[in-house]
Amino acid sequence: AKKSGRNTRRLFDQQMNQEVVRYVETRDALKLALAHGELELHYQPQIALGARRKDDRLIGAEALLRWNHPERGLVMPDDFIGVAEESGLIVPIGAWVLRQACRQAVAWQAAGLPVDIIAVNFSAVQFRQGKIDAVVFDALEESGLAPECLDLEITESILLEDLQRVLAALQRFEARGIQLSIDDFGTGFSSLSYLRQFPVHRLKIDRSFVRDILKDPGDRALVQTIIQMARNLNLRSIAEGVEDPLVLEQLRALGCNEAQGYLFSRPAPPEAFTRWLAGLGG
Ligand code: C2E
Ligand code: CA
Ligand code: CA
Ligand code: CA
What we know:
Elements: H1 2-35, E1 39-48, E2 57-69, E3 73-75, H2 81-87, H3 90-110, E4 117-121, H4 132-143, E5 150-154, H5 163-176, E6 179-185, H6 194-197, E7 202-205, H7 207-210, H8 217-232, E8 236-239, H9 245-253, E9 258-259, H10 270-281
Parallel strand pairs: 2-4, 4-5, 5-6, 6-7, 7-8, 8-9
Antiparallel strand pairs: 1-2, 1-9, 2-3
Protein name: cyclic-guanylate-specific phosphodiesterase
Subcellular location: Cell membrane
Domain EAL: 23-281
């Protein structure tokens, strides 16, 4: 028994080592990625829902981070955001994302393309450092983007941070006109009372609830409840991960305000998104 315990322990140590090595490798490569310009943003449209499909219209885009790794190819955020957060690299990376996204939105607006909202994912970790105001306001000033056009997508994990600090920062953003969305809404375990405290403008309904609303009455009830709660609190609702036209019609019937998903477009690099936008008019 003693021996097998030792073997288990050794196996455990080996796995730990592999994880540590992987973490260190990813962290070091990520540090270089930023310096070497390997990071890029892809964009996915966000659509305001009208009475009918023909009344739907583009309101803006969400910026989604990609890592163009010299050997690994295009690396998706789920494979490196965790490391970026743990290592603190999300702070400079997040600042870059914000700057880049604001510039791109201004470029589209200057070209007469109707991108009124640029949604940027914001990690709770970014609030831990002191310069969060400078990061946000500098990106706006440098790009010339109107603050009303910027939408920060944060998750409920923000509630685990120093709440007074976070709340104060969010209130300063709100005072400038910046919008705030709660991402992955419904997946956290938080109390809902924060919704009244935070300057929130929009609830983003997680894809895991949206996906099966036609088949699963429980999911449908949940989505309906979120949409209604948003309306009662004077917030907008947006459904993410919409792939199916029938799901879209169900969301419309439930009174969902906005939608996003592969049905409209996959996240695309700026050039492809620009072509997609130009095609809307024609
Ligand atoms: P998220 O913010 O919840 O983004 C939605 C994810 O669903 C994106 O994955 C998007 O590509 C994907 N998606 C959109 N429509 C559909 C659909 O119809 N079907 C399916 N199956 N998926 C869809 P992605 O781009 O891999 O991003 C994953 C997560 O990484 C994001 O989840 C977000 O939490 C995080 N992330 C992405 N970019 C950034 C960033 O710049 N900063 C931070 N802090 N996090 C980011
Ligand atoms: Ca998001
Ligand atoms: Ca989500
Ligand atoms: Ca997310």
